[in-house]
Design brief:
It is a single chain. The chain is α/β, with parallel strands linked by helices. The chain has 12 helices and 14 strands. The protein folds into 2 domains: about 5-105, no CATH class; about 130-380, Vaccinia Virus protein VP39 (Rossmann fold, 3-Layer(aba) Sandwich). Strand 11, helix 7 (about 255-265) and strand 12 (about 270-275) form a beta-alpha-beta unit. Helix 4 crosses helix 5 (about 185-195), helix 7 runs parallel beside helix 12 and helix 10 (about 300-320) runs antiparallel to helix 11 (about 350-365). Mean pLDDT is about 90; it is low at about 105-120. Bound molecules: S-adenosylmethionine. The site of S-adenosylmethionine has 19 residues, from helix 5, strand 9 and strand 11.
């Protein structure tokens, strides 16, 4: 094969803002069966698959041509995608090189996460007017650079909701977004249910900040989103006027998440999607006489405290009869606070629920701390 010719062909294809490359048709499977390369805002992520494992690395944009050439000794096909086209470079049995260009039928979008089998709900280029007002999209429908991580988190958050509500058979849904802040998530959840799922949604965003609540209400009114409303208030004091089907939180600070989970469990809310943040409460208390090493190093103490907080929350939700998953919902590079608690109300036998509670309490007493959700549930005699 003429490597110079191949290099030229690859370089000419790379002039086309390539977002994804799939390298396949291996000569020796032992050296790898496929390679996926995807563009990630300033770098490329390379995932090399063997039959049993995958290996991920990130490379700079200018390293891409060289990396591609390194794969030509083992692979015979390179499919390059941008939003419009697919370019296929094939190396034939007698080492001839062919280049074809097709319309991209798979509509690759740039907002795919590590889970490559699923499409995000919203794609760049889609005009969602309120989000242009709110500075998430440009007028052309492109994601504003500084909003990219937030947009990605929200997309993934809604994708998880989408997975979860596949069997939702009611025509309406009532959701509360606790600690909604600037409410990008709230608007997109509204848009998703109302315009994509055709479900009559009522959604309330609650926050302590008067200015954001006022602005969000104005934006909702401007677009006639009549059942999207925002209220000023503290999660710990909030009382719903209608039965609530789902609560969501995205980075509600510290124990605000506990109040949100407490409300949901107390009201018997069926579905919970909660991404916790700034778990300071446990970090301020945690100590262990038997295992001082656990709390010796500040940065590790902070991480462990955050993890302890979230596993206790998960166990307490189980103790309240929820099925619970703790999911790393997005890559760490988009936010270090990337765990999502997903819970749905079910029936769990009493002895099993009590055991979940005991496990949580054993951890709390081993490391000498209290935890707000636990305290609230005990106070109300719910556990
Ligand atoms: C980090 S921001 C996240 C905002 C939004 N969910 C997002 O992801 O963009 C956390 C928000 O929670 C709100 N918050 C914190 N404690 C609260 C409480 N007790 N009641 C209501 N809102 C609260 C804050 O005012 C802030 O807007």
């Amino acid at each position: 094969m003429d490597k110079l010719e191949l290099r030229e062909k690859i370089n000419s294809v790379l002039q086309n803002k390539i977002e994804k490359i799939v390298i396949s048709n291996p000569i020796k499977k032992e050296l790898g069966i496929r390679v996926d390369i995807s563009y990630k805002q300033g770098y490329f992520m390379v995932v090399r698959y063997t039959e049993k494992q995958s290996f991920t690395s990130n490379i700079k944009e200018d390293e891409l041509p060289q990396i591609l050439l390194e794969f030509v000794d083992n692979f015979k096909q390179f499919n390059f995608f941008n939003n419009e086209n697919e370019f296929i470079i094939k190396i034939s049995k007698n080492n001839k090189i062919f280049l074809n260009k097709l319309k991209n039928k798979s509509k690759i979008n740039t907002f795919k996460g590590n889970n490559r089998t699923k499409n995000y709900i919203f794609t760049e280029g889609e005009r969602i007017e309120p989000l242009i007002d709110m500075g998430v999209f440009t007028k052309e429908g492109k994601v504003v650079h500084s909003m990219y991580d937030k947009f990605k988190q929200i997309n993934r958050f809604i994708e998880l909701i989408d997975d979860f509500i596949k069997n939702y058979d009611k025509k309406s849904i009532n959701i509360i977004d606790f600690g909604c802040g600037k409410s990008y998530l709230t608007f997109l959840v509204y848009y998703y249910f109302k315009f994509i799922k055709n479900i009559d949604i009522t959604i309330t965003g609650l926050d302590l900040k008067a200015d954001v609540i006022e602005k969000c209400n104005e934006t909702a009114k401007k677009y006639n989103y009549s059942r999207l409303k925002f209220e000023l208030g503290d999660i710990s004091e909030y009382k719903p006027t209608e039965p609530v089907d789902m609560i969501i939180t995205l980075h509600a600070c510290d124990i605000a998440t506990d109040y949100a989970l407490f409300n949901a469990t107390k009201w018997g809310v069926k579905m919970i999607f909660s991404v916790p943040c700034c778990q300071h409460e446990v970090n301020a208390q945690i100590k262990s006489n038997n295992l001082p090493i656990i709390t010796r190093y500040g940065v590790i103490k902070e991480r462990i405290s955050a993890d302890f907080t979230d596993i206790i929350r998960c166990n307490l939700l189980r103790a309240m009869s929820y099925n619970v998953d703790l999911i790393e919902f997005i890559g760490f590079e988009h936010t270090p606070k990337n765990l999502l608690i997903r819970a749905n109300l079910t029936e769990i036998p009493k002895n099993i629920r009590e055991n979940y509670k005991k496990e949580a309490e054993d951890l709390m007493s081993a490391f000498n701390f209290n935890q707000t959700l636990h305290t609230l549930l005990l106070q109300e005699k719910l556990i």
